[in-house]
User: What shape does this take?
Amino acid sequence: MILFNLLFAATVFFYALGCSYAFRYYKSLEDSLEATATRYLASGALLEGAWIAAKWLSDGYAPLTTIDGILAALSFSLALAMLLGRIKTPVPILTALFLPFIFALGLMALLAGLKPVPLMESRLMTTGMASHIFLTFLGFAHFTLGFGVGVAFWVQEGQLKHHRFKNWSYRLPALEALDRLTVFYIGLGFLFWMAGLWLGAVQAFEVWNRLPLADPKILGSFLVLMIYACFFLLRWGLKMRGRKSMMLVMTGYFLALFTFVGIRVFLTTQHAF
Amino acid sequence: MKFIVYGLNHVTAPISVREKYALAPDKVKEILRALKPQAPEAVFLSTCNRVEFYLSTDNVADSLDSIQRGLGRYHRLKPGEIRKYFYLHEDAEAFRHLFRVASSLDSMVVGEAQILGQVKEAYQGSREAGMAGSLVNGVFARAFGAAKRVRTQTEIARMPVNVSSVALDLARKIFSDLSQNQVLLLGAGEMSELTARYLVDSGAPGLFIANRTLEKAKALASELKGTALTLEEGLKKMEQVDIVLTAVGGGFRVGKDDVERAMKSRKGKSLFLIDTAVPRNVDPEAGRLESVYLYNIDDLSAIADKNRAQRQKAVEEAEAILEEEVDKLCSWLATLELVPTIVRLRERFEGIGRKELEEFLGKNNALSDKEKRSVERLVHDLTGKLLHDPTVNLKKIGDEADRFEFARMLNEIFSLDDEIKR
Assistant: This one.
């Protein structure tokens, strides 16, 4: 237990180091600082992945039955998505913006791990269930980053259109780069989300012998999928670009966020979280 | 040892004078070596805006004489004529001047990037001539560090301040690296031509030039390595190119419909329209279309003006950074002056410790090796701890006279036999 806690503390420590470099980058705009921040992010993600794998092997089931495990999986997914996006198109400002969120999630997971709160029975955590959760988390992480890039696009586009530039606007990348990155994130997120939903449906049939489509979480998840499908159809079919296209990205994300967090708060669902 | 800068620049001397002092690269080493007897370390910086000697010397007057004689001989000028345009800065003032030069605060166009490379080349030249010692190395390394801080921590070099550069910067904000984006020049005006050159130099792969008179278009196309078109062909070309510069006189109009038609076949790709004509060529309503970014000459000028104001603010921030760096450099140099005293003091204490240790060990032969090592460590640690605070406090003394006085006192109290030079 102590070893697991130490491993996770090391993860958070690396994220914190990455954060400090990200903030320094934001102040100085030196690319080398962002590169260092990314290296720390990658180190943290590696340790977090190792923590998840070790815990899975040690307990015999994925560490997704408690709040700390869920938060860790979420921060891991975000870190992974961020690293994948960086390989595709390095946008240093995004590292500076998102690293603090990843660190915050990691820190919350660390603190929650001190007194774990169970969310579901461990016997339900089959490999299929774990894959369903991880894939939807990865999908959500990519949608989150896609949303972030979309907002950056929205701001940059607005400035270019209306000729009103803020001082910090020089830190935003070009519209085309932001557009390409949005498509990359939403595309990958779409695939992960779809695979996650499919595995979820399989689980539902195994557990309940049916797919409860009326469940708000399942309904919401399908709607998210539909919105992003529309995004790609309009983009490739009608060549829709620019702000209208980003509107869809943002709408899709808000619905994904509501499905992820809001439904448990405002509605009832058969999902554990 | 003093560090000085002796030179002239665009403020003190007109171009007719500056060009007289430009030196061929092979002559630079010769002049630097001629200075060796007076100034063991020297750097010569020569750009179109300045000619400067950076020297570390014990004798400023002799060094200046040597420079004036050398320059006079080389350029066939009288010493009085040389002195008229030259300035001299010493120590902290000289550091500040070098830092301002390297950071481009002393340039004709504040924030330009070339000067740092030129200073680096000058320093490299000095190293190759064997004229860079510890002082020059330390001062120039800090100058490069200060310049880097200014460039990264202020907005001084980020904001373009002329209209063509603003247009180029906007193009980069839309299309990123421009290597995939073709340019269309409709008509010909000074500003649009210059912008087109900037865009092509920045990697735009193709340039189309359309004009009412095809002959004019061809002439310009051959100069800019572009393709000549008629105006009608140019309008059609809007479907393919990403950046359009317009400067057509005589009531030529690009209507909203023309742009809308072009956008339909562009498959959602952005179009950057730069209208430099007065009266304007492009219907302002076209700017409302999705993915169309329309700028006229006033829009570009307004951005350039705003950037100029921002750059002025950045200059103030940069000056504060440089002041901080100059202070750091002065503190570092102050500690260097004390190094001989500190070294002697440490040698003195360690010598006493060694002598006492040998005597003690000679009288106590029965001690085991482990015990001997413990006593040795004790003496070593004791010496280190006794000297730690005096060393640190000595380095903290800011005033030069005080520093000299403290060093002299230490020398006398501990009989260090150290030659302390003012």
Remarks:
- The mean pLDDT of chain A is 89.
